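Predict both folds.
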Amino acid sequence: MTVHGPRHTRTIRELDMVDRRHISVEENGEILAEATVSAPDEAECARAEVTVAPGHLPVGTRQKMADAVHEVVCDDHARHLTASVPKGDAELVDGIRSHLRDPELRVAGATSIIQGDVDPLGRE
């Protein structure tokens, strides 16, 4: 599925059919952010690994990625999410946290790990 916005293109592509999905946010053919999201496990927990391109990104890129991850986990009926993002990426952390209830954040090396219950409505 590809969604075109005013400046960005968001693509969600199936990997391994049911097990994982790949999401990318692109502008002018350049990938700005990517994520791989696993299907929920037996405990209804999905996992997401999010990366972003180095350097300055257009305003809203990180929020678009957070929104896309939320859309995928909701489509997959996940009740919980554990997401890993680059350490220090406050905008991405805030974007993902805005879609979780009772989020917890911890650092593991160069990665921030956010986990919590998926808010099916999301919060702005």
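Second protein follows, with its predicted structure tokens after the sequence.
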Amino acid sequence: MMHTSQRLPRLTTALPGPKARAVIERDRAVCSPSYTRPYPFVMDRGEGAIAIDVDGNRFLDFAAGIAVCSTGHSHPDVVAAIGDQAARFLHMSSADFYYEAVVELGEKIAAVTPVGNGPGDARVLFTNSGTEAVEAALKLARHHTGRGLVLAFYGSFHGRTYGALSLTSSKTTQRRGFGAMLPGATHVPYADCYRCPFGKSPDSCDLECVDFIEEYPFKRTMSPDEVAAIIVEPVQGEGGYVIPPARWFARLRALCDKHGILLIADEVQSGIGRTGRMFAMEHFGVRPDIVTSAKGIASGMPLGMCIARADVMDWPQGAHASTFGGNPVSCAAALATLRLVEGGLMDNARLQGERLMAGLREMAARRRLIGEVRGLGLMIGVELVTDRASRARAVMETRKVVEECFRRGLLVLSCGENAVRLSPPLIIGEDQSDAALRILDEAIGAVETGA
């Protein structure tokens, strides 16, 4: 177990340090300029929720590789599982051959994913990433229904390959310059109660955003009997960690059932214990027909999944597969991850999330930049505004807050135009939650005062 002092940030050089600067210069010469790096952090090694850079500076990691390192950095159980499997064989391709690790993981995922009529009423297709899982879900929905149209939501992020990108609408930069998208995708407003496009408040809302689907696209641009699926993030990730009301999902489910449309829940970022439940859809009491998962499933190893009702995943041999999907080493990491998540980390995500939310609400009462705090478990968004009455987005200030956190030893990322996301490993303790709150408070204060 790490000593208490090793669980918290400790900076020993100016940032970036000399070794970090050297790596960054080498990176600029050979790596794609399309990567988004909000600050000059260069990873060397990790221990739990601590990320250590090449100059020996210790950072408290509340980004977790974009919500990927669910069990922390290099959890010994996951490392052991990876080593054991690697010593046996590294690859055999589940698309053409059988091996037990992929079957065991499929059995486990089918038992815990809220699709179909209950535990076990699911089949799993394995991929390498979230965007591949979305591509598979899109193809499966079209194949099963025989329909070609798909409805998605403004603010969504489903991936960067062409099919997934056609469903994505969080930032124009993700689409700019790439020409026509996949035909058949239409976007409608998401249920963002803080920024309701229909001018409603939670007290006056009658789910006009669902009525809009029936009254506009379904009557004017896309016949519902030609719509294969509605794809939705239970919590919008890149869109700002936005949490819709539970009754919105019930209405979406009813809308899908009315027109024979499949409901796809994109749980790539929200799934595998992050919200305090195995999947975020469990908070809303609605069972989708297809679920996509990736990120936190294998603690950092590349793995994605398209999970569907057994009767929906009815395509024939050769219709879809992946050479590397369900890699045995990634499957071993995923099985170890699931044991840890079910063995206490999911409950810890709920408890630490409650602690962080309480601290953030207290902070919001003092910090004029904070417009709203929202979260489920350890998927928390802090939306920053320049004026609470108009809710004007504090875009530049959000970038500065993220940078100020880095300068103080806390790794966070932004989401949407003006929100700070907190998505730490599910292993964090009270001391680390409190340290993150203190640093975030200092960072926001520095930006407010211009210090």
